[in-house]
Amino acid sequence: MRPPSRLVRLRAALTGRGLDALVVGSSAGMRYLTGFTGSHGLLIVRGDAAELLTDARYAVQAGQEMQEGARCVIVAGSLPEAAGNLRLLRGCARSGFEDEEISLRDHRALKKAFPRIRFRGIGGLLQGLSAVKDSGEIGAIAEAAGISDRVFADILPLVRPGVTELDLAAEIAYRHRKYGAEGDAFEPIVAAGERSAMPHAKASRARIRMGDLVVLDFGCTVRGYHSDLTRTVAVGRVPARLKRIHRIVRDAQEEALGVVREGAAAADVDAAARRVIRREGFGRYFPHSLGHGLGLQVHERPRLAPLSPDVLTDGNVITVEPGIYLPGTGGVRIEDDVVVRGGTCEVLTISPKELILL
Ligand code: ZN
Ligand code: ZN
What we know:
This protein has helices at 2-16, 27-34, 59-65, 79-85, 104-113, 125-130, 135-155, 165-178, 240-257, 266-279, and strands at 21-24, 42-46, 49-54, 71-74, 94-97, 118-121, 183-184, 189-192, 213-218, 220-222, 225-226, 229-234, 291-293, 300-304, 317-320, 323-326, 330-333, 336-341, 344-347. By secondary structure, it is of the alpha+beta class. The N and C termini lie far apart (47 Å). Bound molecules: zinc ion (ZN) (2 copies).
């Protein structure tokens, strides 16, 4: 019964903004509101009706995926035009549209199909609704996080001198699927030695050497929901300076986790980690935000960043992932998936956080 309650929440939010309908064209929005995972569709929510237009390629899939409360209509040709011909916004004066997602071309097509409707952008309305997860959604993320924990434990013995980063990325991707995930949340990041100082390094043909730090950042999807895990391990003996930054990143994460609770400002959680890293003199080597919401998308609201306006609330699932990156030397990041539930912080990720020496 999840989608009907989402549609109910959506309708209340639309009414609050003086809107009597909403046109949704983004895959993420359609999936969130109806369960449909196809890449071509247009959803019109109005009054009691939620109608998803798509083409014949998706007839069977939509039939299987569409959740209660929404109806699928198979059409040919332009979706906005078909919506106009079917008068799917009849009786409406003002409709919202996804101004942060829609292309200019689709916006024009929509205005042409519904010349009498006044369209207003909804900004981050859907992102705000989907940031608060129900127990089914949290369960899916917890399952995905559990699979990634299991994969981490599995691949530790494979992290050895001579193995390439791509080798390890392949082992991670294979195991995610073996353990029941639908796929990777994103291409696994495996970054060794100097390359570990690049926060978003793609796995390469570089081989792991003795004395390297290796950053492993990966996640998988379960029922569309993502996990996202980072650990940094050491191969052989690593310099004291790298051990030190690992300890600082761990302390910073611990500090931030202590601030996560219902009502906390996301910016304050970021600040808690940043303060620890700054105090140790590495402030300028932590160039990214502390974390992000996790759900049907890998990066969603709330954002844990210095200027984030978001406030944490029960049902939020977020990552907490401080890092220190020393160019030319190496980097460390530690990332856990966390739920705000019952007012407090519940960490889903259970992989060990001490520096593992392989
Ligand atoms: Zn990650
Ligand atoms: Zn992340």
